[in-house]
Amino acid sequence: MNCFGATEKTSSKISVLLVDDHTMVRQGLRALLEAEEDLSVVGEAENGRQALQMVKRLQPDVVVMDIAMPALNGLDSRPLVKSASKIPNRKSSSSPPTTMMSMCSN
What angle, rounded to 10 degrees, do the helices at 74-84 and 48-58 form? Predict the structure, then answer.
């Protein structure tokens, strides 16, 4: 069983892009996610502008993005990142689209 509760084996890994302005947070998330055999972190970005460029280039399956970031925050970049993704409409897919956002205070 993988971290999403799925038991079906697939031949390809789920690609993940990490977006956070704190290097330690990205490193920690990378370590956690890469411990899962069916996940692969394909890139990291420090802000929403970098994320947008990387989504266009890498086309990850999942983007894990912080909300509070300089140079285009997570809330403002989310619709841009979503429109830059070439992932087909998931209404016909077995995995529904999900947006999860989290934030903490300093």
Answer: 20
How many angstroms separate the CA atoms of 105 and 95, rounded? 32
Residue 81 in contact with residue 55, Cβ under 8 Å? yes
DSSP structure class, residue 5: S
Edge-to-edge order in the sheet of strand 14-19: 39-45, 14-19, 62-65
Alpha carbons 78 and 66: distance in angstroms, whole number: 10
Q: What is the pLDDT of residue 62?
A: 87
Q: How far apart are CA 48 and CA 84, in angstroms?
A: 12
Q: What is the pTM of this model?
A: 0.73
Give the chain's domains with CATH numbers. Answer: 14-88 (3.40.50.2300)
